[in-house]
Design brief:
The protein has 178 residues and is α/β, with parallel strands linked by helices. It has 5 helices and 5 strands; from the N terminus they run βαβαβαβαβα. Helices cover 37% and strands 19% of the residues. The chain has a 5-stranded parallel β-sheet with strand order 2-1-3-4-5, sandwiched between helices.
Length: 178
């Protein structure tokens, strides 16, 4: 089984990318979590550039989504909204169909007490509009007390919650899940 992990953050020391590292490390045997780090290089959404031969980065992302059994997104919250780069990426996927009925999980991490819940909820809603199947959601307060000097989460509750989210996503992605 293959899960594509997409961070909405471009920041090198992103707490959202750190959550995706936990997801990869906690994946059960037989589950590969592939981190997609190409958002930074994607062009701004332009319907005039889309079609049978979209820009190469978009074609690559779409192919990775088709090959994935499930997707996990992790997004920061900027002014109670999704970061522009993630929204732009999703705009390239609205009409192409790679996320239709695909099991997805949504995580958000933000220093605030709500852990970026508003952005996480907005992302989940957007994915549902795109006909993805949102099966799990988690908001994590990315306070310094939960992270080590490298920015990795060490908080046992956070580690367990991410591991549980991965298990829910895996279960929803198996043929007998319904």
């Amino acid at each position: 089984m293959r899960i594509l992990a997409i961070s909405g953050s471009l920041q090198a020391a992103s707490s959202n990318t750190a959550l995706l590292r936990i997801a990869a490390a906690s994946a059960p045997d037989g589950v590969v979590v592939e981190h997609y780090d190409g958002i930074r290089d994607l062009p701004h959404f332009d319907p005039d550039l889309d079609g049978p031969e979209p820009p190469p980065g978009i074609a690559d992302l779409r192919a990775r989504l088709v090959a994935a059994d499930a997707v996990v997104f992790s997004t920061p919250e900027y002014a109670h909204a999704l970061p522009g780069a993630l929204k732009d990426t999703l705009d390239w996927l609205v009409g192409s169909g790679e996320l239709i009925d695909k099991p997805v999980a949504v995580m958000s991490a933000s220093p605030g007490l709500d852990g970026g819940k508003i952005a996480g909820d907005a992302l989940a809603t957007l994915l549902e509009v795109m006909s993805a199947r949102v099966v799990a959601q988690l908001a994590v307060g990315a306070t310094r007390s939960k992270r080590d000097e490298h920015g990795d989460f060490t908080d046992p509750d956070t580690l367990a919650q991410v591991a549980d989210l991965v298990l829910v996503l895996v279960a929803a992605s198996t043929p007998d899940a319904d």
